[in-house]
Amino acid sequence: MAYPTAPRPRFRLTPMRPRDPNEPGRTASTLELFFDLVFVVAVSAAAVQLHHALTEDHVVDGLISYAMVFFGIWWAWMNFTWFATSFSTDDWLYRVLTFIQMGGVLVLAAGIEPVFVDRDFTVLILAYVVMRVAMIAQWLRASRRAGRSRRATQSYAIGIGIVQILWLFQLTLSGPLAITTLILLIAAELAVPIVAERRGLTPWHPHHITERYGLFTLILLGESLLATANAIIEALHDDGALGPLISISILTLVVTAALWWIYFWPPHHEAIGSFGDSLRYGYVHYFVFAAAGALSAGIEVQIDVLTGESKLSEVAASFTVTVPIAIFVLGIWWIALRDNADRIVNTVVPLGAVLVLLDTFFPTPVTVTALIMVLVVVVLVLRDPTPRAGRLV
Fold it and tell me: Which residue among 139, 165, 302, 319 is buried most deeply as judged by most CB within 10 Å?
């Protein structure tokens, strides 16, 4: 007896419905991992340009350009990540729209150098708009079967669309007005999720979304490991600075490992229980991610100082390492660690970040920084994370 087969989905598309936020065993898909790999290119390009600006003593211009460029990188990644945790289907249309975003990231990476050199945002903004238009298509598709989240998905699509039109208009401006408008548009982008989620929350999977953030953090910390390898390569070509360069590579590895340890010590999924918590977690990660990316540039600056190729003073060069480390540690402490830690950890971790900043004025700042980070990790090893309900206050 032949049994009837289920009807084939129209156009071979899977209905895009809200995902179960309690779905067991939810992990990052291969498409999401592939998506993240493209951002390695953009992050690396931003770090390289920041390194060049810092080592040429163009500190203020370099930091402003880096902050603006990194916003585009982070916001494009973050929007797709939160959408995917709520509505991913992994059919052919979903994949194609994701590939379009990936292509936009590659073009965005090509537009990073003009921002740093000439303050020309044309390529960067056009690539960014392409990525955001693809996200509009995703949100509109999701809105068809979003249920209670329908108003939120529509608000996302409309809000993103309006801001993209304004981004294109911004390209016609110049001078101080262009910079002012750019800042206002960044604020508008940040406001879209706040408005949309108040009209109907989209379902996010705590374990899945925090895993995605952890994976992106690994990519950024990997940039520091690349800088470590560059220090060893430089040492092999510069006998005069062999000892210091080898030392900086070892100390960088120690610091990077400590940052990894600190980041993954608390249970991140407990940090996004409410909309307010998830907003704080998502938005403050901008500073965590940007600091991790800037750290690799700072390490390269240290290498330039040791080889006599930097225009920065030793103290100024030290800040390029200590400031990113302090921001990274304080950011993770505030959004994920402090609610799962006792008084000792909640004292040691932020104090360690402050002491790292003071290391700048020591004769061997990277050595002292590495020692402080190791001591912080030792405390974390001795103190287990405390569940939020039972933490000491």
Answer: 302
Say which residues have a Cβ less than 8 Å from residue 93's Cβ, sequence separation at least 6: 11, 13, 141
- How far is 119 from 132, CA to CA, in rounded Å? 22
Return the pLDDT at 305.
82
The structure tokens listed for 272 are: 């996004």
Fold that domain 206-390 belongs to in CATH: I/LWEQ domain (1.20.1410)
178's CB contacts (< 8 A; 6+ apart) are 121, 170
* Cβ within 8 Å of residue 170, ≥6 positions away: 121, 125, 178, 181, 182, 185
Q: Where are the domains of the chain?
A: 30-197, 206-390
Divide the 393 residues of the chain into consecutive groups of 10 and give the mean pLDDT of each group. Answer: 49 84 90 92 92 91 94 94 92 94 94 92 94 95 90 95 96 88 95 92 92 94 78 62 74 92 93 89 95 91 81 85 95 93 94 90 79 95 72 39
DSSP letter assigned to residue 156: H
